[in-house]
Design goal:
The protein has 3 helices and 4 strands; from the N terminus they run βααββαβ. It is 32% helix and 17% strand. By secondary structure, it is α/β, with parallel strands linked by helices. The protein is globular and about 35 Å long. The longest helix is centred in the middle third of the chain and has 17 residues. The protein has a single domain, classed as Conserved hypothetical protein from pyrococcus furiosus pfu- 392566-001, ParB domain (Alpha-Beta Complex).
Length: 107
């Protein structure tokens, strides 16, 4: 997935209203430490745990379901792409094995 899709229009953060809110929250304390550790690890070994994306079937919105710290780390590193898995929001997390519906990013 293109890292540039991590924005307030295409792939949104679940736990925050906007990505700049997530960045502010992760700017200090244990969250900053975690992001810095991830950046070091990603720089050395790549992103080992994919970012989990979820799609709301009602609105077809795409969110980061798991991996907000990883998302901030890849954005700060300026990586062009990141590995991901995805699922529909339907009564639990069931990772999809079908191709991701990239057309939803263009809405």
């Amino acid at each position: 997935m293109r890292t540039s899709c991590l924005n307030d229009r295409q792939i949104r953060p679940t736990d925050f209203r906007r990505w700049d809110e997530a960045r502010r929250c992760f700017a200090q304390g244990k969250d900053r430490t975690k992001v810095d550790q991830l950046k070091e690890s990603i720089d050395k070994d790549g992103l080992e745990e994919p970012i989990l994306l979820c799609i709301s079937p009602r609105w077809l919105d795409i969110y980061v379901s798991d991996g907000h710290h990883r998302a901030i780390a890849v954005m700060e590193l300026g990586l062009l792409r990141f590995p991901f898995r995805w699922h529909w929001v339907r009564g639990g997390v069931h990772i999809e094995h079908e191709p991701f519906p990239y057309e939803l990013l263009e809405r």
